[in-house]
Specification:
The complex is a heterodimer of chains A (335) and B (342). Chain A contains 12 helices and 14 strands. In chain A, strand 10, helix 8 and strand 11 form a beta-alpha-beta unit. Chain A starts with a strand and ends with a helix. By secondary structure, chain B is of the alpha/beta class. Chain B is built from 13 helices and 7 strands. Chain B is globular, with a radius of gyration of 19 Å. The two termini of chain B are 35 Å apart. Chain A: InterPro entries: THDP-binding, Transketo_C/PFOR_II, Transketolase-like_Pyr-bd, Transketolase_C.
C-alpha cells in the first residue's frame, strides 16, 4: 500500500469526494489563493498549508471559492449553502479564529436540525489545531473540548493519515455539521493510505495497542507520543491498552469503559486545557460508570491552565511529553 | 388540506393579463390576503400572549406588512429567504402554513418545528424559508450561502435576507455584503428600518444616519421604497431582482417603516412618544393605504376586500383554536433531531 502524508491524504479525500458528488464545494480564505494577485497564478497557494492544492484547476471557481478574510461570513455561508442543499467544506485556517465566527457554529449550525424540524445542514468545517511550532497563543490552541461541549455538532480529531482520509470522507457525507480538526504537527507524518474510497464511522475509537495493566486514552498528535511510551514500557513488562477515540463527539464511551473494567487503571493524555477539558470529561465518565473497577485514581496529562506560550522552551514545557506520560502510567501502577 | 390552507400556500400565479399597478387581479388579491393574514396573526398573537397562552419571547411585525409581502410577492418556493427574530411576517409572506406557525408559537408537538423552535426560530426549508433567527445579523451570511447554492445550480433562483436597522450595525451584515459582492451572488438584501433596535432609536444607533450610503459603500445598488406602501416595495424589489436574477450580483432595497408593538411582547415602550403609534396607524397604515388605492382605482372591490377579511379572520380563529387544542410535546421528543445519527 502506498505511503502518504496526512496532507496528501486529506487533499486526496477532497479530490475524491468533489469528483464523486457535485454538491460538494470548498470555501475559505486562500483555499486556492492567487485571486486578485499579479502573478496570474490562480491556484497559487492551494490553502495556506497546501491542503486544497489542485482543487481549483479541476473543479473551477464555482466550487472552489476563495473568500475574503471573513470568518463569520465563511461559516455563515457554509451554513446557508448546506441548508440549501450543498455539502460545503469550509476552511478556517486556525481553529483559534473561531472566536470571530462562534455564533455561526454555536447558535446556527449546531441548532438547525433541532430548531427547524430536522433540517439537514451537512457542512464540514476544517481547521488546524495544536501547539508545537511556536505559533504562540492565538495560533496554537486545541479547541476540541470547547466544541465537543456543544450538542448538535460532531468533532473529529484524526491522529494519522489513514484515519484522516477515511474520517474526512465520512465527514463530508455525514448529514450533520462536522468540525474536522487537523493537528498541524501531523501534516507531514506518513503511513499507508489506500488510493480508493473508504470511510471510518464516527464514535468508534481504535485500540492502538493492547494490554491488561493500564488504559491509556490519547488524542490527536499525542497518540503518537503515547504509542512510543507504551511500546517502551511493554519491553519491561508493563502492558497498556492505548485508545485513540478519533472523534471526541460522539465519543466511544464503551471502548474506554470496557478497557478500564479490565485494567482498573486510566491515564488520559490530551492537549486541551485541563479545566472542563476532554481529560476531565473522560475521567468523569469512568468515575461515573466504572468506579468499582478502578484500582487507582485517574491520572491526566494535559497542558497547564495557561494560554500557549511562544518561546520554544516554554512551549515544550506546556505540551505533554513522554516523561510525563510515563510518570502518569507509573503513578497509577503504583496503587 | 383545507380550502384556507390551499389559498394561503398556493404558488403565485404566472403573470397573465396585467392591470391595475402592473399586477393581475389574482396578485392583488394575494397581496392583500397576505398582508391581512400577517396583521390578523400578529394582533391575535398579541392577545394570546397577554393571556399567558404563549411561552417565551414574542416579537411582533405588525405595521411592517407591506415590506414582507411587497418583497416576497416576487418569489417562489424555489427562492430562499432568511429572517430576523421579528419573523412571523416574513414566514407568512413566503407561504409557511399559518396554522402550523400558530401551533409552533404555542409550543405544540405538531407545530411547524415540532415545538422546538418557537416564535424566534420558525423555518420551513421546503418553502425556501431558512429560518427566523434569534441572533441579530446572523442571517445575512447564511443567506449568502443560500445564494452560493443558487448560483451554482444556475436555475435563476435567488436568496433574500431581511435585515433591520439594528442589524445594519452588526459586522456579520458588513461581511455578508462584501462577500456577496466579491462572489457576485444572486442575493437581495432587504433592509427594514422600523425606527428602533430594541429600545434604542435608529437616529441614535446608526452613526452615519444613512443606511443607504453604507450599502452603496459596498458597491451594492440599492432601491429605496416606502415601507408603508406595498406597491412601492413591490416595485423596488422587482428592480432589484431583475439585476440579481440575471447575473448582476447582489442588490438591496431599503424601506422605512414602523412597528406597532414593542420590541417584545410585554415591553412597556417607555422610549416612545405616547401618540407615535396612534399617529402612524391613522395616517400611514399599509393596509388602509392598500384598501384606499384599490377602492379608488377599481383594482379590487370593497366586497372582494371584505371577503378576504372574513376569510383571513376565520383562518386565524381556526389557527388559534387548533393551537390551543394541539398536543404538547412529550418528554421523549427532547432528544429527537439533535443529530441525524450519533
Amino acid at each position: 500500500m502506498p505511503k502518504k502524508s496526512m496532507r496528501e491524504a486529506i487533499n486526496e479525500a477532497l479530490h475524491l469526494e468533489m469528483a464523486r458528488d457535485p454538491s460538494v464545494i470548498v470555501l475559505g480564505e486562500d483555499v486556492s489563493g492567487g485571486a486578485g494577485g499579479t502573478s496570474g497564478q490562480r491556484d497559487a497557494a492551494g490553502g495556506v498549508f497546501g491542503l486544497t492544492k489542485g482543487l481549483l484547476p479541476k473543479f473551477g471557481e464555482h466550487r472552489v471559492i476563495d473568500t475574503p478574510i471573513s470568518e463569520s461570513a465563511i461559516i455563515g455561508a457554509a451554513n446557508g449553502a448546506a441548508l440549501a442543499g450543498l455539502r460545503p467544506v469550509a476552511e478556517i485556517m486556525f481553529s483559534d479564529f473561531i472566536g470571530v465566527c462562534f455564533d455561526q457554529i454555536l447558535n446556527q449550525a449546531a441548532k438547525f436540525r433541532y430548531m427547524f424540524n430536522g433540517a439537514k445542514a451537512p457542512l464540514v468545517v476544517r481547521m488546524t489545531v495544536g501547539a508545537g511550532r511556536s505559533a504562540a497563543a492565538q495560533h496554537s490552541q486545541s479547541m476540541h473540548a470547547l466544541l465537543s461541549a456543544i450538542p448538535g455538532i460532531k468533532v473529529v480529531m484524526p491522529s494519522n493519515a489513514y484515519d484522516a482520509k477515511g474520517l474526512l470522507l465520512q465527514a463530508i457525507r455525514d448529514d450533520d455539521p462536522v468540525i474536522f480538526l487537523e493537528h498541524k504537527m501531523l501534516y507531514n507524518d506518513t503511513c499507508e493510505v489506500p488510493d480508493g474510497d473508504y470511510t471510518i464511522p464516527f464514535g468508534e475509537g481504535v485500540l492502538v495497542r493492547e494490554g491488561e495493566h493500564v488504559t491509556v486514552v490519547a488524542t490527536g498528535q499525542l497518540v503518537k507520543l503515547a504509542t512510543g511510551v507504551v511500546d517502551r514500557l511493554a519491553a519491561e513488562g508493563v502492558r497498556c491498552d492505548l485508545i485513540d477515540p478519533r472523534t471526541t463527539s460522539p465519543l466511544d464511551e464503551e471502548l474506554i469503559l470496557e478497557s478500564v473494567r479490565e485494567t482498573g487503571r486510566l491515564v488520559v493524555v490530551d492537549e486541551a486545557p485541563p479545566r472542563c477539558g476532554f481529560a476531565a470529561d473522560v475521567a468523569a465518565l469512568v468515575a461515573r460508570e466504572a468506579f468499582a473497577s478502578l484500582r487507582a485514581p485517574v491520572a491526566t496529562v494535559t497542558p497547564p491552565h495557561t494560554p500557549v506560550p511562544f518561546a520554544p522552551e516554554l512551549e515544550r514545557e506546556y505540551l505533554p511529553d513522554a516523561a510525563r506520560v510515563e510518570r502518569a502510567i507509573r503513578s497509577v501502577l503504583a496503587h | 388540506m383545507t380550502a384556507e390552507q390551499d389559498v394561503i400556500t398556493a404558488p403565485k400565479p404566472a403573470s397573465a393579463a396585467r392591470h391595475h399597478d402592473g399586477l393581475t387581479h389574482e396578485q392583488l388579491l394575494s397581496a392583500y390576503r397576505q398582508m391581512k393574514t400577517i396583521r390578523e396573526f400578529e394582533e391575535r398573537v398579541h392577545v394570546e400572549n397577554a393571556s399567558g397562552a404563549i411561552p417565551g419571547f414574542t416579537h411582533l411585525y405588525c405595521g411592517q406588512e407591506a415590506v414582507a409581502v411587497g418583497a416576497c410577492e416576487h418569489l417562489t418556493d424555489a427562492d430562499y429567504i432568511i429572517s430576523t427574530h421579528r419573523g412571523h411576517g416574513h414566514c407568512i409572506a413566503k407561504g409557511c402554513d399559518v396554522v402550523g406557525m400558530m401551533k409552533e408559537i404555542h409550543g405544540r408537538r405538531d407545530g411547524l418545528n415540532g415545538g422546538k423552535g418557537g416564535s424566534m426560530h420558525i423555518a420551513d426549508i421546503g418553502k425556501g424559508m431558512l429560518g427566523a433567527n434569534g441572533v441579530v445579523g446572523a442571517g445575512q451570511p447564511i443567506a449568502v450561502g443560500a445564494a452560493i447554492a443558487c448560483k451554482l445550480r444556475g436555475e435563476g433562483r435567488i436568496a433574500a435576507s431581511f435585515t433591520g436597522d439594528g442589524a445594519s450595525n452588526q459586522g456579520t451584515v458588513f461581511e455578508a455584503m462584501n462577500m456577496a459582492v466579491v462572489l457576485q451572488l444572486p442575493k437581495v438584501f432587504v433592509f427594514e428600518n422600523n425606527g428602533y433596535s430594541e429600545h434604542t432609536g435608529a437616529s441614535y444607533g446608526i452613526g452615519c444616519e444613512d443606511i443607504v450610503k453604507r450599502i452603496e459603500g459596498f458597491g451594492i445598488p440599492v432601491w429605496q421604497a416606502d415601507g408603508f406602501d406595498f406597491f412601492s416595495v413591490y416595485e423596488a424589489m422587482g428592480k432589484a431582482l431583475e439585476v440579481s436574477r440575471n447575473g448582476g450580483g447582489p442588490t438591496a432595497i431599503y424601506c422605512e417603516t414602523i412597528r406597532y408593538f414593542g420590541h417584545f411582547e410585554g415591553d412597556p415602550q417607555n422610549y416612545r412618544a405616547k401618540d407615535e403609534v396612534q399617529r402612524y396607524r391613522a395616517e400611514k397604515d399599509c393596509l388602509l393605504k392598500f384598501r384606499a388605492r384599490m377602492e379608488a382605482n377599481g383594482g379590487l372591490s370593497t366586497d372582494e376586500l371584505d371577503a378576504v377579511d372574513r376569510e383571513v379572520g376565520a383562518l386565524i380563529e381556526r389557527a388559534v383554536q387548533e393551537a390551543r387544542n394541539a398536543p404538547r410535546p412529550r418528554a421523549e421528543d427532547l432528544l429527537t433531531n439533535v443529530y441525524d445519527n450519533y
